[in-house]
UniProtKB/TrEMBL annotation:
Keyword Disulfide bond included in the entry's annotation: no
Gene Ontology cellular-component annotations: nucleus
EC code(s) of this entry: 2.7.11.21
Primary enzyme class: transferase
Binding site for ATP: 63
Organism: Ichthyophthirius multifiliis (White spot disease agent)
Protein name, per record: Serine/threonine-protein kinase PLK
Keyword ATP-binding in record: yes
Catalytic activity: L-threonyl-[protein] + ATP = O-phospho-L-threonyl-[protein] + ADP + H(+)
Length: 574
């Protein structure tokens, strides 16, 4: 087996197979093999990679700890404690511990793979988050912390880099390398540990010991960092940072707008006296955390902030008004299922007197975001590709269709201009900046004029190298290339359309040809189109292996998720 502890750049170019020897009851040995994938990160002396079981094709994260660093008894006991604590935990907001095994060189810990990285990467890309995003994430972090504390576990290293994001942007607390389990109520720990920017003052003092309150302090630092963009006590020098923490020296920047309720919450949490910090329940009852908080956020926030229309639906002053308006719309139009999917009017999915946000049937093409490997026919090496994200969408633009102007009731002669009508209706609900984007008409002629409009059901973002590949609900597949050209394939007619814009022209030039006979100068793009299409189709067939306990958001949230994705896609085209 190749040594997995070599240079990171060399490792990513190597095909590494990790073998696990499993002994059955009859002493017969079974060898399980895992293909090591992309490098995910490192902490302490361990490195973490994506791994794929060659037996089940299931992906996970694999943490590799070299035995060479476990020669001292203290290091060994620390690893045993981490495994013992993490193995005992089972909660939706805690990274799943799969199992652990070893060989002569390393100890391997298999963990749940969180495909959307951590809040640390999100802040690096977005700089800072909006209140509604912070509220959603903090709500989930608190749920995880409450579970840990009920199990008498102190995390002791709560930071953005240890707050992982799942496929549906659900927070997962991870890395229990510094975690401690209390044996009895009131017990104090005295080990000085943590990450400099997030460490609590009582840990640095080390006089009276510390307990659960250190996690609450770190939570306050997390909230500040998400809203401001950097930790409150951060300095270039660790000693200066520790001094500022001990003296509680931090400020709120004048050039960054932050609500008074957020300031009050942060100030109350970042209290030098542990006993004066609010409890987790008190944080949840704070005015900053009041109002309607989305259970999950749309995937589009990985790229750009949520729109004002999305944020507005969760503001207290508009929520009651929104519910009444939505209820009236439902009662005037009939069942949502009837409007969106043409179900029988006698369906039992009716609403009672108390309004409940309706659930929707979303696209069945919801896939895990996994590493894409493309086989190179020349050297048979596996080339690791970029991340994949799936977008859950609704089958109707609920909230933008009125009974009087219902596009689903249009005659076929009217459907020719359906797309432009839909974008016109949609743009009326956007901010002025968004309107400029959505008013632009698409010149692609692949949507059948006699069909309803198509929407994206799967997509793969490989824009760092080639472009964005996708599959539509009608079976068409396409690629938006980095050079702003577009290619789309319609399987029913075996027709491919290639769209490019000539220099100094506002008109797109469309070239049509078959899948088998195409211009030789487009050979590379045709290959990419077929690779993306085949891969996404394969992922669709294997989605049950990669998805467990998937719960969809409300129809309103899914609609907004699709809006956010469209906003990002149009923005990329400008």
């Amino acid at each position: 087996m190749n040594n997995p502890n070599s240079n990171n750049n060399d490792e990513n170019n190597q095909l590494v197979i990790i073998e696990e020897k499993v002994l059955k009851q009859n002493s017969e040995a079974i060898i399980k093999k895992y293909m090591r994938g992309r490098f995910l990160g490192k902490g302490g002396f361990a490195k973490c990679y994506e791994a794929t079981s060659l037996e089940t094709k299931r992906t996970c994260a694999i943490k590799i700890i070299p035995k060479s660093i476990l020669t001292k008894n203290r290091a060994k006991q620390k690893l045993i404690s981490e495994i013992k604590i993490h193995k005992s935990l089972s909660h939706q907001n805690v990274v799943i511990f799969e199992h652990v095994f070893e060989d002569k060189d390393n100890v391997y810990i298999l963990l749940e793979l969180c495909n959307n990285n951590t809040l640390n990467e999100l802040i690096k890309k977005r700089k800072r988050l909006t209140d509604i995003e912070v509220q959603c994430f903090i709500n989930q972090i608190i749920n995880g912390l409450k579970y840990l504390h009920q199990k008498k576990v102190i995390h002791r290293d709560l930071k953005l880099g240890n707050l992982f994001l799942s496929d549906r942007l659900e927070i997962k607390l991870g890395d229990f390398g510094l975690a401690a389990k209390l044996e009895f109520d009131g017990e104090k720990k005295h080990t000085i540990c943590g990450t400099p920017n997030y460490i609590a003052p009582e840990v640095l003092e080390g006089k009276t010991g510390h307990s659960y309150e250190v996690d609450i302090w770190s939570l306050g630092v997390v909230i500040y960092t998400l809203l401001i963009g950097k930790p409150p006590y951060e300095t270039p020098d660790i000693k200066t940072t520790y001094k500022r923490i001990k003296q509680n020296q931090y400020t709120f920047p004048d050039n960054i707008q932050i609500s008074e309720s957020a300031k009050h919450l942060i100030t109350s949490i970042l209290n030098l006296e542990p006993s004066r910090r609010p409890s987790l329940d008190e944080i949840m009852a704070h005015p900053f955390m009041k109002g309607q908080i989305p259970k999950y956020l749309p995937l589009a926030i990985l790229q750009c902030p949520p729109s004002q229309s999305y944020i507005k639906q969760f503001t207290p002053e508009n929520f009651q008004q929104k519910n009444i308006a939505l209820k009236n719309m439902i009662s005037s139009q009939g069942l949502i299922q009837s409007l969106a999917f043409g179900k029988n009017e006698n369906s039992k999915n009716t609403l009672g007197q108390t309004f409940v946000p309706p659930k929707t049937q979303s696209s069945t093409n919801i896939n895990s975001k996994n590493a894409l490997f493309i086989q190179n026919n020349n050297n048979n090496n596996l080339e690791q590709q970029q991340n994949i994200r799936a977008v859950a969408t609704t089958k109707n633009w609920f909230g933008y269709l009125s009974q009087k102007n219902n596009p689903f009731q249009m005659q076929k002669s009217q459907q020719k201009n359906f797309t432009s009508t839909l974008f016109k209706q949609f743009s009326q609900n956007q901010t002025s900046s968004e309107k400029k984007i959505f008013r632009k008409q698409s010149t692609l002629s692949t949507l059948n004029e006699q069909n309803l409009p198509a929407w994206v059901v799967q997509w793969i973002d490989y824009s760092q190298k080639y472009g964005l590949g996708y599959i539509l609900c009608n079976g068409c597949s396409g690629v938006y290339f980095n050079d702003a050209t577009k290619m789309i394939f319609e399987p029913s007619s075996n027709k491919v359309e290639y769209v490019e814009r000539q220099n100094n022209s506002e008109q797109d030039v469309v070239v049509s040809f078959s899948l088998q006979e195409f211009p030789q100068d487009l050979k590379k793009k045709m290959t990419l189109l077929q690779l993306f299409r085949n891969y996404l189709k394969e992922q669709k067939n294997r989605r049950k292996l990669f998805k467990r306990n998937l719960k969809f958001t409300s129809i309103k949230q899914q609609q907004q998720q699709y809006q956010q994705y469209l906003f990002y896609q149009w923005k990329q085209q400008q």
